[in-house]
Structure to design on (383 residues):
């Protein structure tokens, strides 16, 4: 593999654009969601083992760290869903103009935050 | 396996500093990637102080000025100087483009010039594009028809319009070398430039090989490594949209 000729620099020098940022975040949140779903599945499965296990997770989720994880997971899912909608529209062949991609990317990036807060606070109100 | 880091022989060292000798007040620093195949050294970044009062408007003019007045050893490709040939494609301040159409006034601060990303460097700013050309050959970029007429092969205005935004491609490779998917899977993934060309023949109403062409390109690695990162469309110096062309191919395959 080691060639005499060097490889020109790539990710080290290339500028980030909104669309490349959204794309890489989409991947990262995808991986996070994979583990998050597993975690949530395990949590629900643990309910079968009795009340004590519920109390345990419940108290963890009320702690600062637990809340952080909770909000993080909500953001990760929100981002993924918004970005996926963007991808779906693109799969239909729309929204490829550089300006449109910038705007839709920004909507995904920025929009994911207020929606996460909304979901979290609504969830807190219900529970 | 994806390799994010540069191999040890590609790590960039600090190079020489060429101080301005003209005494100009309007100086701009230009950092240029250098690699000499005749020496057994790592690539380096040379910095040139360029007198901007006596320099025309494009980045290529800066390079010409450096080559003519400061350091004749610098190597880069260029030909038409009007954005038609695609020879002077390179990475300027973190974005691919043609040096001959890119105004240096559009670039902020010091100017960093690198070869097109993730290519085997032949010398200085010259990258090896032979893989891309082989891939281009693989899509058979010529008209396939059984009709042999004495007259023109007629196309309706609507069918001809479908080629707009495709036929203008000059194969400068700005898009393909801006694409992270192409960086990591350049051997197998065809990349935006070649896929745009493939689509140009797929959508041509005069071509009779559409089904075969689609079948050929419908491959997990050849086509579907496109994850709509859109670096290609952002980079294209001709304002074309390779990402959309790829999406159209995917759509044709999905609805066929």
């Amino acid at each position: 593999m080691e060639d005499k000729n060097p490889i020109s620099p790539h990710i080290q020098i290339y500028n980030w654009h909104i669309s490349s940022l959204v794309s890489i975040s989409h991947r990262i949140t995808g991986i996070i969601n994979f583990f998050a779903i597993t975690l949530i599945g395990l949590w629900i499965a643990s309910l079968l083992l009795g009340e004590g296990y519920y109390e345990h997770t419940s108290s963890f989720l009320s702690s600062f760290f637990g809340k952080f994880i909770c909000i993080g997971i909500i953001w990760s899912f929100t981002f993924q869903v918004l970005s996926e909608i963007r991808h779906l529209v693109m799969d239909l062949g729309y929204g490829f103009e550089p300006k449109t991609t910038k705007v839709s990317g920004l909507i995904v990036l920025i929009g994911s935050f207020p929606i996460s807060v909304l979901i979290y606070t609504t969830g807190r109100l219900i529970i | 396996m994806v390799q994010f880091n540069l191999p040890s022989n590609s790590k960039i060292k600090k190079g020489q500093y060429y101080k301005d000798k003209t005494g100009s007040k309007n100086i701009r620093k230009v950092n240029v990637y250098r690699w000499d195949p005749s020496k057994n050294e790592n690539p380096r970044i040379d910095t040139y102080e360029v007198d901007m009062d006596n320099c025309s408007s494009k980045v290529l003019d800066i390079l010409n000025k450096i080559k003519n007045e400061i350091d004749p050893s610098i190597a880069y490709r260029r030909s038409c100087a009007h954005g038609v040939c695609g020879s002077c494609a390179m990475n300027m301040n973190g974005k691919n483009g043609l040096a001959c159409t890119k105004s240096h006034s559009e670039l902020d601060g010091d100017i960093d010039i690198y070869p097109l990303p993730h290519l085997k460097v032949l010398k200085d700013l010259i990258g090896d594009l032979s893989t891309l050309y082989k891939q281009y050959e693989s899509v058979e970029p010529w008209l396939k028809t059984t009709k042999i007429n004495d007259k023109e092969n007629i196309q309706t205005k609507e069918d001809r319009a479908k080629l707009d935004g495709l036929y203008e491609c000059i194969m400068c490779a700005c898009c393909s070398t801006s694409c992270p998917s192409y960086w990591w899977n350049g051997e197998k993934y065809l990349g935006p430039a070649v896929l745009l060309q493939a689509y140009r023949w797929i959508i041509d109403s005069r071509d009779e090989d559409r089904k075969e062409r689609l079948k050929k390109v419908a491959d997990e690695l050849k086509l579907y490594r496109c994850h709509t990162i859109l670096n290609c469309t952002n980079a294209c110096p001709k304002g074309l949209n390779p990402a959309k062309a790829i999406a159209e191919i995917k759509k044709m395959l999905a609805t066929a």
Remarks:
- Residues 130-255 of chain B form a domain with the Fumarate Reductase Iron-sulfur Protein; Chain B, domain 2 fold (CATH 1.10.1060.10).
- The longest helix of chain B spans residues 242-255.
- Residues 174 and 229 of chain B are 15 Å apart (CA to CA).
- Chain B has a mean pLDDT of 95.
